[in-house]
C-alpha cells in the first residue's frame, strides 16, 4: 500500500529533501508506510531514507535529516492516512442502533479501529483487527490498547455481538499480554446475559492477565428507539447492587494479587443501587473516566479543593446550571457549597429530563438542546446558563440534535457558558473571579 502526499510543510525536513505535494510515499528507512501509525513510528529517527514515487512516475530515494522526534512535515488527505474502519458486529446492546432518525450522519458511524484505540483512547472489539495489525502492535509496543470485551465466554460473546469471530478474537488478549502490551477492558453489562455468574467468570479470566491494568463494568444504555431490536431489560436497584458486590469481591482479590484494585463499577451502578459512591482514593489513577468510572468521586474532590481557596464575595450574582438527571445531586451539592461561600450568590440547578432519547438515559453527555429549551424556556435563568462540555461535540459548538450553543443562547435569551467536566472548573465558573 502507498499513500499520496497532499502537501509538504514549508521549510520542513521533507521539503528540504525535495519531497513535493502529489508524490507517493512508499517507505521510510525500508519500512512500508500504510497509515499514520507506521508514519509516526518510523519518522522518529535523525536520518531517514524516504522512498517515493514522484508525479512523473519515477521511484526515488531521498535523504532526510532532522532531530530525532521532530516531524518530517508531510500532510495527508486524512489524519489516519486512509479511511476509518467501521464495526462489523451487530451487538444486541449497540447504542448507535438505538439513535432516532434525522441526526447528523457522522453520529451513525460505528468505528472499530485499532489505530483510534491508541491515538484517541477508543475501545475496540478485536473482531476487526488483522494479523498484520496485531504484529505491529507487538513489534512497535503500542500501548495501552482499550478493548471492549463484554464477556470472556466465547459462545456468549458470539451471541451478544452477532459475529461468528467474536469468540476467537478473545485469543488475541493473551498474545498481547505475553508481549507486555498494557490493556484496559470494558464490559457493557446486560441483565440476564453477562452479569451474575458470567460476570464473575469474565473478571476471573481478565484479572489473571498481569498486563490488564483496569477493567470497567458499565450498564447497558437503553433508549426509547429500539423498534425491531432485541428485548433487553435495564438494571434496577437490586441488580445494580449485585453487580457492585461482584466487582468489590473481584477487586479485593486484585488488591491481594497486584497491590491495586484494577476492577471497578461505573458510577451509574452506585446511583441506581442507591449506594454511596466511594471516595477518590478508591479509584487509583482514574484509568477509565471515559466510561464513567470515578467521575463522581473525582468531581467532588476537585470541587472541594477549589472551594478551599475560594474568596467570599459581596457581588450579587444569579446564574443557572443545566445537567442530566444522574449528575443532578452532585451539581446541586456543589452549587449549595458555592452559595455558602457567597451569600449574595443564587445558583439554580436544573435536572434535564431526557425526552429525546428516553427517560432511562440520565447522563449529561446525552442531553440535547431540544430538551433544554423545552424545559427551561420562560424561566428566569439569571445572567448565565452553565452547561457541561460533555453535552457538546468535540468542537464545542453543537449538541447531539445539531443545535448550536449560539442558537440555544438565543432561544433562551441568556448567555450560555460551557464548563469543562471538572469540579474545580465548575466552582470557578459559579463563583466567577472568586477562586485563584
Task: State which percent range the strand residues make up.
Answer: 15-25%
Main sheet properties: 5 strands, antiparallel
Output the radius of gyration: 25 Å
Q: What is the typical, i.e. mean, pLDDT? A: 92
Count of alpha/pi helices? 14
Number of strands: 15
How many separate domains?
A: 3
Per CATH, the class of the largest domain reads: Alpha Beta
Helix content: 25-40%
Instruction: Point out poorly predicted stretches.
Output: none
Structural class: alpha/beta
What would the principal axes of the Cα set say about the shape? globular
The string of secondary-structure elements, in order, is EEHEEHEEEHHEHHEHEHEHHEHEHEHEH
The rounded distance between the terminal residues' Cα atoms is 54 Å
CATH topology call of the largest domain: TIM Barrel
Q: Supply the CATH architecture of the largest domain.
A: Alpha-Beta Barrel
Detailed description of the structure:
The protein is an alpha/beta fold and 436 residues long. It folds into 3 domains: 3-75, PDZ domain (Pdz3 Domain), CATH 2.30.42.10; 96-293, TIM Barrel (Alpha-Beta Barrel), CATH 3.20.20; 300-431, Rossmann fold, CATH 3.40.50. It contains 14 helices and 15 strands. It has helices spanning 13-17, 36-42, 114-120, 131-140, 154-161, 172-178, 196-207, 237-258, 267-273, 295-308, 328-341, 369-376, 405-412, 423-431, and strands at residues 3-4, 7-8, 24-28, 31-32, 47-53, 59-65, 74-75, 145-148, 183-189, 212-219, 263-265, 317-324, 345-352, 384-388, 415-419. Strands 1, 3, 4, 5 and 6 form a 5-stranded antiparallel sheet that branches. Strands 8-9-10-11 form a 4-stranded parallel sheet. A 4-stranded parallel sheet has the order 13-12-14-15, with helices on both faces. A hairpin with a 5-residue loop joins strand 5 (47-53) and strand 6. The longest helix has 22 residues, at 237-258. It is globular and about 75 Å long. The N and C termini lie far apart (54 Å). The mean pLDDT is 92.
